[in-house]
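User: Here's a chain of 297 residues. Predict its fold as tokens.
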Amino acid sequence: MKFDGWRGVLLVNETAVELWSRHGTNLSDRFPDLIAIGGEQLEAGIYDGEIVVWRDGACDWDALLQRSGSPTRVADQARRLPASFVVFDLLALHGQDVRPLSWTDRPPLLELTATEWRPPLQLAPHTLDRTEALTWMDGSLAATGIEGVVVKGAGSPYRAGDRQWLKVRTYETSEVIVGAVTGTLDQPTSIIVGRYTATGELVIVGRTGPPTTDQAAVLAAALTPTEDHPWPARIGAGHFGGSPVDLLRVELTVVEVAGDAAQQAGRWRHQLRLIRLRPDLTTAQVDRHHPPAGSGR
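Assistant: Prediction complete.
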């Protein structure tokens, strides 16, 4: 399973425990709770996994982001928002490099070390049964922050820097409000979508990738440019990263999109996929934007 968190590696030996990000950043000072649990429960080795924060039975990305706040608040954050470490692979055990072993051989070793583990240390579910893996993709786990599955070759060793696995995301469909496009109306490069808050403000909740040729033709016929709009003609880089984005604002229209479980403050972090226009729905019938408590607007 793919959990909605940060990739991390726990290094454990007889004298120290360290937590590193996949980009080579030492996170030990940020997660003293995981350092402590690693020293208590893990045998000497290198453990590849995901750092998550569970709240109300789901991976909470916004809570995880709070754990990267002010260094002076680390102890308070660890107490209020305790992290968990979900282990999905074993790279070394008691000084022996096990990366050359195949994927079918590494999990049994990992399971042997995990027999006495207790939360917040967890073993990620894995299977060689395709039918079982497909049940994890039926969408029922999306609400818990399970983004999908990671598919690995049964006979493949672990090769650092060589991506030999495939991430397959679980997608769910939702109705949203088209407020603008980027590019031109005839050839949009993306669709910017929003939802109303409880106070009646239309906020941006995501963007799609480029529509297909057929979808672009349908959109061009259905969307009408307007200057009378709650959004500015240019939005800042904070919405999607990178540079500011110029918008071609349009009269509000409802569409159906597909998105994964990864959200931040009620907004989709990853690109959405346009499914179809929904002329049968009014904007008032679209679900409201409800960011998690304490996450901001």
